Amino acid sequence: MIEVVSEHPSLRLLPDAGAELLLSAVVSRHLELAGVRVLVIKGAPLAMAGLRSPRESGDVDLLVAPAEATDAALALVSAGFEVASPVTVWSRLSSHSTTYVSPHWSLAVDLHYEYPGFGVDDASAFEWLWSRRVRLPMAGLVVSVPSVGDSAVMIVLHDRRTTRGKGSAADSYADLAARLQKRGHVGDLLTAAGALGVVRDIREALLLPCENAGLADVTDTANQSVAWRLRVASNGRFWAVAAGRLRRYAPRERLQLLVDAFWVPARDIRVGMPMVPDNGTARMRYRMMRWARGVAGVTSTVVAAFVAGWRRVSRRCTASWRGLVGARR
Amino acid sequence: MTAGAEWEARMFCLARDTAQVRCGGAVFVANAAYLETQQSPYVFEGPSFEIWTRIDGERSEEQIVDELTELYGAPREQIAADVRTFLTQLLELHLIEETPQDSV
Fold first, then answer.
1. Is the pTM of this model over 0.80?
2. Which residues of chain B neighbour A4 with C-beta distances below 8 Å?
3. What is the chain B residue with the closest CA to A74?
4. In angstroms, what CA-CA distances link A116 with A106, A129, A145, B61?
5. SS (H, E, C) A283-324
6. Is A44 exposed, middle or buried (CB count within 10 Å of its CB: 0-12, 13-18, 19+)?
7. B90: nearest CA in chain A?
8. Is B72 helix (H, G, I), strand (E, B) or coil?
9. Cα radius of gyration rounded to whole Å, chain B
10. Would you say residue B102 has pLDDT above 70?
């Protein structure tokens, strides 16, 4: 007798690479059916596009428009997924994604409603990525992924964020640049970098290694790359990110979040910082340490903003002076 | 043509939202449209794998039974009954659908 069996012990035999393809395809299609526009990012699509070698992944990364994040979350919950870690003041104010897990799948789903690093606002960035999406066959279905140029930009931004500028990824960038050149995607990369406002951010990593990239023709069309630079420059990035995030909440909720951010509730400390001993003194010490870090972060952010502004002004003055001298001659 | 013969002549293909990944002698299957009620992927190995991989919109049930009879050397009636049961279950789970006759 042949029977259809679910919850089969052999599910454990499915390697993560196979599980990633199946889960990406199924969840992506499930969200599409729920009316959510979703892009499968990082992981398998990068390998399938030839941008990096295949590697095992612990999760599936999806990107949705910020306005559709709630619908996406509801669709995931209806499919048996639940949020991996409880919501805290930190996750509400600074996280760009939420991780969902299901007892039926070996991999988690990382649902991104933002992708940190773009020089344009998150909704505009998503619209750009969506307008240039590529349909990719995956596990018998067809999913949407960012274009090759957009994906390359996202690789560099992700590395910058995770290594915070400390890692040396020059070799992998050289390899990525070579792959882009070989496949004729340098033009696409330049278009993406200009529209997403990250020309300066990826210049050293990707544009310079791409010979004849035509750098002179490309400029950031966005004007917010300074904000990202400030975020990176700031030691206490939480405060820089949180300041922007607060604007999204209703006034009353905003006030509550602000209070929670300064006086983190005991529950959030227990959940988010399990290493802090569960007593009032330790929690108070932890809060004071956070305040100190926050002050340091805000200070460095202000200094970075001042330096960036000063450089811009001095550059303009120099240019005007040279123009003046040239005109007299 | 009898009802049984009609059934045997029917052809099936994967449902529109069914995803699958093959890994060695097993195939892992899930239907995105029914993820709310079927949250775990299905695994087909052995005979069920052999049937699943033959559901391609081109083979009829009769052809699948013939091929499996040849493969396993078991009595045709027994294999036909098993294949019918399995296909019926797959249809009920919306993992496959009948191929429209005019598209063949």
1. no
2. 42, 44, 48, 86, 89-90, 93, 95
3. B36
4. 27, 14, 18, 52
5. HHHHHHHHHHHHHHHHHHHHHHHHHHHHHHHHHHHHHHHHHH
6. buried
7. A4
8. helix
9. 14
10. no
